[in-house]
Design a protein that fits this description.
alpha/beta; 23% helix
C-alpha cells in the first residue's frame, strides 16, 4: 500500500552566496522583484504577479561554479533561465546591474551571464517571439563549439556518469615532454 502524496508547492529556488543580501539586491534590480523576507543570512524575493521566488542564503564557504567546466572544476548544480523579448537590451540591462557575460556563448538565441558571485544564468529569446534572431552566425557557434572540444572540456554527462568515463575520469599524463 502506498502513502498518499502530500501537497507540495515550490516556494523558491535558493542560491548560496558569500553575502545573501548583496546577491538578492542584484536580482531585485535585475528582475524588479520585491523583497518579502529578510533576516541575517537570508533574503527572499517574489515576482509581482505571484509564483515561486528566489531565496538567497549566506554561505561563507561558497565556491563559484565554472562554466564550461573542465575536469576537477566546481560544477554547476543548476542555473536560472529568463525569457526576454530583446536579447541585446536584456544583456545590456543585466551588465549594467552587475552581471558579466560568459566568454563562451553556445547558442545564437541565448546569452550566458554570471551574477556578481559567479552563478550562471541565461537570457533567451523564445523562438516564437516576433523579430529577427540575434546577429550571431552559425559559423561562430560552430567555432566556439570546436574550441571547447579542443580544450577537452568535461560535459555534465561525463561528470555524473558512473564508471571510468565519468566523475572518476583522470587526465592522461603529458608524455610529450
Amino acid at each position: 500500500m502506498s502513502t498518499p502524496r502530500p501537497s507540495l508547492t515550490l516556494s523558491s529556488t535558493v542560491l548560496d552566496a558569500p553575502d545573501a543580501a548583496e546577491l538578492a539586491d542584484f536580482y531585485r534590480r535585475l528582475l524588479g522583484w520585491e523583497t518579502v523576507q529578510e533576516e541575517p543570512g537570508w533574503v527572499k524575493l517574489l515576482p509581482p504577479g505571484g509564483g515561486s521566488g528566489l531565496g538567497f542564503q549566506t554561505e561563507k564557504a561558497y565556491v563559484p561554479p565554472v562554466w564550461p567546466a573542465s575536469p576537477g572544476d566546481q560544477l554547476i548544480m543548476l542555473h536560472l533561465d529568463f525569457e526576454v523579448e530583446d536579447l541585446e537590451t536584456a544583456v545590456a540591462h543585466a551588465v549594467a546591474e552587475g552581471a558579466t557575460p560568459a566568454d563562451f556563448q553556445p547558442q545564437h538565441d541565448v546569452r550566458v551571464l554570471f551574477d556578481p558571485v559567479g552563478h550562471p544564468f541565461c537570457l533567451f529569446v523564445n523562438e516564437e517571439a516576433p523579430g529577427e534572431p540575434p546577429a550571431i552566425s552559425p559559423e561562430w557557434v560552430a567555432e566556439q563549439t570546436r574550441e571547447i572540444a579542443e580544450q577537452d572540456r568535461l560535459t555534465i554527462q561525463e561528470a555524473v556518469a558512473p564508471g571510468p568515463a565519468g566523475a572518476a575520469r583522470q587526465d592522461e599524463p603529458d608524455t610529450a615532454s
